[in-house]
Write a structure and sequence with these properties.
Elements lengths: L1 E3 L16 H11 L2 H12 L7 H5 L7 H12 L3 E3 L30 E6 L2 E3 L3 E8 L5 E8 L10 E4 L4 E4 L6 E2 L8 E2 L2 E8 L11 E6 L4 E7 L2 E3 L2 E3 L2 E7 L2 E12 L1 E7 L17 E5 L9 E3 L4 E3 L11 E9 L2 E3 L20 H18 L4 E4 L12 E13 L7 E4 L9 E3 L7 H9 L42 H15 L5 E4 L3
Parallel strand pairs: 4-12, 17-25, 17-26, 26-27
Antiparallel strand pairs: 1-2, 3-5, 5-8, 6-7, 6-11, 9-10, 11-12, 13-16, 14-15, 16-17, 18-19, 18-22, 19-20, 20-21, 22-23, 24-25, 24-28
Helix pairs in contact: 1-4, 5-6
Bound molecules: zinc ion (2 copies).
One zinc ion (ZN) binds next to helix 6.
């Protein structure tokens, strides 16, 4: 039976026995047919009066969800209370008891306390005002908070002066349940927080009130783009990000073109000077290695291959590479139309298992280096750090997209083990984090090694004037908080679009 809360204490002749919402829900689902429910609904909309419950439940198993939900909502917001009324001649209906829950405590019939939240819903960090009314008008009540959908170990009790409205902040309500396997992860848009009185002068209630905490677990994909000038290197970072079950899922796509790398050598300081037609530049010559090593041992004088000048040992500072791709029957360098390599590059199978394996390794190494290093956390969240309310994991996925022409951001993939750079990745390069480093540029991270595309204003977290040799951007393989700054900015943007809340996020230690 249901009556408005205001009338609950004035009903005569009934065992005024409040019923917990779970109890009512089971009754409704089991026993009530559509017609009586409609009647009841009409009753509730008008003046409340008794409804013969037992007669209704005889009718069958059908139910109407919308009405059930409307009654439950009314119950939960304390607009209604449920009372059990025995009907003479019919055996009393005993609902199934949930096995794990203790029986509801017996309330004192002479005291009623209604606890209300205004508004009755909000996001972490938002304020609710608690007001109390009922037959108890003074004193302090200790309210106990408990999540309905999942465990809320960090929710505490709150002392409320019954006569004075009290403001409280929503916090410590988790929205994520981690399972043993990734697919067991369960994220919630909504968590109901049940509130009960725990102390005198109001007895423990079996007529709980709820407020509804709202989470932000998902947001559709958006694209991050920026134009940077780092140490006079122009860069255009770009990646996609979406949010799924409190995971910021980042996808970096690098467009790749089948091609070749051509070594060249800077012979400044040797007797070989000037330039040759089609050559790599002044005092420079195309070069090659006849030993399989990365460093060249021959240069091309414009006519034929020659040994390097006597006494000249090429080091990292004087041999480099240029990328080429095949256009029709000629080889063209995206790095300069004037470059002509002195001979044709031997063709190769781009999808040879060896090369497929190299690209797969680059992808898996990038994922391993970049993913799950930090959480992204809402700066203004006041929850305990173990509570998964405003925290997002980060997964980074690198993808290669094969294209057939050069263009902005297109990387040439080459066989062999020449020197890679941002425009050409050599698939014989033995540095597995090569692509992870380049993906870092796409994710808005400058170089952190000397003479690279650095940002000298970076002086946080171990970096000095933009240099930090321990990181993936500086020649090592760690990822620091600053490297997640673009993901944090994207979480802010994506959540603002989806939920209308403009909060700031930052990388924090994983808890
Ligand atoms: Zn929070
Ligand atoms: Zn770089």
């Amino acid at each position: 039976m249901f009556v408005r809360a205001a009338e609950a204490s004035t009903i005569k002749g009934a065992a005024a026995e409040p019923i917990a919402p779970w109890d009512v829900e089971r009754w409704l689902k089991r026993a009530w047919t559509r017609e009586p429910l409609l009647d009841l609904h009409r009753e509730l909309a008008g003046a409340p009066r008794w409804v013969p419950f037992d007669a209704m439940r005889e009718a069958g198993e059908d139910r109407d969800d919308a009405i059930v939900q409307s009654i439950l909502r009314a119950l939960r917001s304390n607009e209604l209370v449920a009372l059990r009324l025995p009907t003479p001649g019919l055996a009393p209906f005993v609902p199934d008891q949930p096995p794990s829950k203790p029986p509801p405590p017996t309330p004192r019939k002479d005291e009623v306390l209604n606890v209300k939240f205004n508004p009755s819903t909000g996001y972490c960090g938002e304020k609710l005002t608690i007001t109390c009314d009922g037959t108890v008008t003074s004193g302090t009540v200790k309210l106990k908070f408990k999540g309905v959908e999942l465990e809320t170990p960090k929710l505490t009790t709150l002392d409320v002066d019954i006569a004075t409205p009290k403001s409280m902040e929503i916090k410590n309500v988790p929205f994520l349940q981690l399972g043993e396997k990734p697919e067991d992860r369960k994220a919630f848009e909504d968590v109901q927080v049940q509130v009960e009185s725990e102390s005198a002068p109001v007895p423990p209630s079996n007529l709980p009130t709820f407020y509804r905490a709202r989470g932000m677990p998902n947001a559709p994909v958006g694209t991050f783009t920026a134009t940077r000038n780092w140490n006079n290197f122009a860069m255009k970072p770009k990646f996609d990000q979406k949010i799924e079950k409190y995971i910021a899922k980042v996808v970096v796509t690098i467009s790749v073109l089948k091609g070749w790398a051509a070594t060249y050598v800077d012979l400044t300081g040797t007797p070989v000077t000037g330039a040759v037609t089609g050559g790599p530049g002044n005092n420079m010559r195309w070069a090659r290695s006849t030993t399989g090593a990365m460093a060249p041992d021959e240069y091309h004088d414009g006519t034929a291959w020659q040994p390097l000048p006597t006494g000249f040992v090429p080091g990292a500072g004087n041999f480099f590479s240029r990328s080429f791709y095949r256009s029709g029957t000629t080889f063209v360098s995206p790095e300069g139309a004037s470059f002509v390599y002195p001979e044709a590059f031997p063709d190769y199978n781009f999808d040879d298992p060896t090369y497929i394996a190299v690209r797969k390794r680059w992808i898996s190494v990038a994922k391993k280096i970049w993913s799950r290093k930090w959480h992204l956390h809402r700066k203004a969240c006041h929850s305990d750090k173990t509570v998964r309310c405003c925290r997002y994991d980060v997964d980074v996925e690198l993808r290669f997209k094969l294209v057939t022409a050069p263009g902005e951001g297109v990387v040439v993939l080459a066989p062999g083990n020449q020197r890679s750079h941002a425009g050409v990745f050599c698939m014989g390069d033995n540095r597995p984090s090569l692509a992870a480093h380049e993906a870092g540029h796409h994710m808005d991270c400058p170089d952190e090694y000397d003479k690279g595309a650095i940002d000298p204003s970076v002086n946080t977290d171990g970096a000095t004037n933009g240099l930090d040799s321990s990181t993936i951007m500086g020649g090592g393989n760690t990822v620091k908080k600053r490297h997640y700054h673009a993901f944090a900015a994207m979480v802010q943007r994506l959540l603002k679009t989806k939920y209308g809340r403009d909060d700031k996020y930052e990388a924090v230690a994983i808890t």
